[in-house]
Design a protein that fits this description.
2 domains, 3-stranded antiparallel β-sheet, Muramoyl-pentapeptide Carboxypeptidase, domain 2, single chain, about 230 residues, Arc Repressor Mutant, subunit A, about 50% helix, 5-stranded mixed β-sheet, alpha+beta
Length: about 230
Amino acid sequence: MIQGGHQSAGPRSVRPATAYRLSPTRERVLGLLAQAPAPVTIAEVAAQLGGHANSARAHLDGLTEQGLVERETQRTQARGRPRYQYAITASGRAAHYSLEHADERALEYHGLLRAFVSHLDAYRERPGSVARDVGRLWGKTLAQTSDRPPRDQVLDLLTHLGFSPVEQVAGGLVELRSCPLLDLAGEHPDVICNVHVGMVQGLLSAAGGDPDGVALRAFAAPGACHLALPE
């Protein structure tokens, strides 16, 4: 179910998500390594980020686990804990290039999506119903093997897709504080919002959860849409 609010309210817009599940900070770290003429240390990355060395280490280790960065022991005469330095891999360079050019490709696909949504909204008697069916199929394709509860998997995916979900204290309500398709949702809420509801339902179902209680109140408040997501 979708309830509409005022379109002057609602979430903020965001740039489209990329195929790489990287936080903005990790994208920045990857960019630093792509531009570095030689392997860098944790201290050097921390200095560039303006944060603590432990935070820089966590980001570098995460990129290493994804195969985007490689770690090697730094040669030193000092005793004690070994020091590491990090370099970008070939996969990392490809990922960095893709991230750098993601907005250009997204604009092209956004035009295609706009044409599809406009056609569906104009020529189907029940565009919202069709859009929700499409969303359910999409959600099922996004499901991954995971030990996390179905609801947590949905929140993880919403974060990755750029919805900035924030859980409320009670009632299973989630605020969606940003939207990757905000301009289209404002023009065609029955289509876009139903696609998003269907996506959540499809993912919940594929993860073993109950999709029946999912509901969206679009543009419910200044800065957010409200998603009912059963516990």
